Amino acid sequence: APAPILKQLSEAGLTGRKAGRGFYTYAAPGSDEVVRDALTPLTAAEGGGGRAVRSVGVAGSGTMASGIAEVFAKAGYEVVLAARSQEKADTAKARIATSLDRSVSKGRMTAEARDTVLALITPAGTLDAFAEVDLAVEAVAEDLEVKQDLFARLDKICKPGAVLATTTSSLPVVACARATTRPQDVIGMHFFNPAPAMKLVEIVRTVLTGDDVHATVREVTAKIRKHPVDCGDRAGFIVNALLFPYLNNAIKMVQEHYATLDDIDAAMKLGGGYPMGPFELLDVVGLDVSLAIEQVLHREFRDPGLAPAPLLEHLVAAGCLGRKTGRGFREYARR
Predict the structure, then answer these.
(1) What is the CATH number of domain 239-325?
(2) Which end of the chain is more exposed for a tag (fewer CB within 10 A), N or C?
(3) For 30-57, how does the pLDDT look when each residue is reduced to its tens digit (9 = 90+)?
(4) Which top CATH class is 55-232?
(5) Quick count: other Cβ atoms within 10 Å of Cβ 183?
């Protein structure tokens, strides 16, 4: 299979000397004179600091979007939480209030601190509210066309110099960048679910991402008390590229009657030291999300062993998506 970097360069239109940029930047299309420009990566010694970020826009109304908005507001950032309607945005903020109320009841924060955090979050029914944010983070459906459409809109709405970040877990970040006229401002910022609890953020820079944008996101990640890890723009990044082949193999073991899901979960927790077994984790992540990631990995690397297990496909087709629907690999009590 072609190396992922070649795919990224091709999708970005960086096809070599004939385009004026490939692995190097050239004086003009067809020239062999190598030059430095804003898109040519600088060495660490030459790189500068990040951009100032005081306000953050979060696009989306689901669990991930509200969780990310909560994280930024807790760190003192002014947050605009934008959804497709004012009602959806208000519902997302209400979800944050419920989360904060649980923290208050458990003694993890005071009622005053909760009120301060909520006051920093402004729900909005349109992306137009992102006009003055310094950092825009999208957390919408894991569908490339949806994300590209959103980035094209952010490109027109957000002010010059705003950083545009995607929380995609598996899609090519460079494809989102190419939907804008400022691909140097686009970067991946992959949070894990639930965002308030999970400490990791994968920072995914493309072949077009500016050094100051990368520095900005690393600084912001530290300020929101998350641990940043850098990785290249290829399917699955770090965590999912390692995790989902393991999860897929666990499903295959069950469908081939090699072991029961209860025994596999117990074996990986007690023998492998994992906090959750693979089937517990799949039901938490969501079987539809898991299937989408498996499909992306299979398409990217063309490895037959990465083909999604038929049992996973069948459960998704049946609407058994995990805890969020009350049934996945196991059944759950309705709340």
Answers:
(1) 1.10.1040.10
(2) C
(3) 888 888 765 554 444 344 588 999 999 9
(4) alpha beta
(5) 24
